[in-house]
Amino acid sequence: MSKILVIEDEAAIRRVLVKILSEENDAYQVEEAENGVQGLDRIKNGEYDLVLCDIKMPKMDGVEVLEAGRKVRPELPFIMISGHGDLDTAVNTMRMGAFDYISKPPDLNRLLTTVRNALDKKELVAENRILKKKVSKKYEMIGESPEITAIKDMIEKVAPTDARVLITGSNGTGKELVAHWIHQKSERHKAPFVEVNCAAIPSELIESELFGHVKGAFTSAVKDRAGKFETANKGTIFLDEIGDMSLSAQAKVLRALQENKVSRVGSDKDISVDVRVVAATNKNLQEEIAEGRFREDLYHRLAVILIKVPALNDRRDDIPLLIEHFADKIAQEQGTAPKSFSDKAVSLLKDYDWTGNIRELRNVVERLLILGGKEVNEEDVRLFASK
């Protein structure tokens, strides 16, 4: 049920507004205040979905109520009620954050339409806020070990900047998670986050994938196509497994980083891009440089900030938290009741050699949830968690 507050000093108009809203929709619960001071007090102490507020009132006018009310409840929509001489003020209140205004005497259709639109927008904003929390939680790093705490602190400092980041670590440690979290906490979080798995794309196609191509550039180029750098404009591009990129592609990436420009395969035209680059690799790039497989100048362009993600064997104290997290998440995904793990089962899993890191642990937890008893115990671990 939507709760609406009507703040209006003229009793006749106030009664009309309350009557119209109450009779129009059973889902509207309408309360009233006869002046701005009383109205603001109700806003501070109540939970409302919408406020209709007159502009000209004694003691405290509607502009003051709007300004003070939005400080208390920033998400609360206001519809201002204006007399004939208050139209300029009513328009100014929209610049201050009011949703809309209606004139006296209120037109029935306009009033109801404006109220519905304001309530719909509030609901949409609330849904978006919940969705953003879910997205943020999806990429949350689980762990309280000193190693993970240090990475979290680093991300908090680095994310708001545009500094390039190179993430290193073994397969399955969560390098992609770190990249996502950097993007989510950056000023670019509303713009695209574009992932490129450099190891999964054939060397002859990587340049087209990254920079796009024009029609006729090669046999299968039947039309112009934008590359990942263009797609990620104003956002973040994540170059995963960059150590597997060909030297010719590395040269083009270096140019893109130096000049903030790319050119599609088969074209001489430069395209300006504004992209933050985050890269990751499971290789030792210093060794790759020594072997002539990776450009040293590109390494120094990418490694402004270095983040090394530890292996799970180096952060065993986080394993109980990770088991609980995966158990809840998997149960939610599968629509089943969550299972708990006995202390002995957790202790046994802490002692495992996790060569596959976080990815392997998640697979083992899922297997134990499917094959284990109501509570996963030590025997379940011995039976089903073996290599």
From TrEMBL:
- Identify the Gene3D superfamilies for this entry: 1.10.8.60, 3.40.50.2300, P-loop containing nucleotide triphosphate hydrolases
Alphabetically, the GO molecular function entries are:
ATP binding; DNA binding
Question: Sigma-54 factor interaction domain spans which residues?
Answer: 141-370
The entry's keywords: ATP-binding, DNA-binding, Nucleotide-binding, Phosphoprotein
**Organism superkingdom:** Bacteria
| A Pfam family per the record | Sigma54_activat
Q: Where is the signal peptide?
A: none
**GO terms under biological process:** phosphorelay signal transduction system; regulation of DNA-templated transcription
Q: What is this protein called?
A: DNA-binding transcriptional response regulator, NtrC family, contains REC, AAA-type ATPase, and a Fis-type DNA-binding domains
Native source species: Robiginitalea myxolifaciens
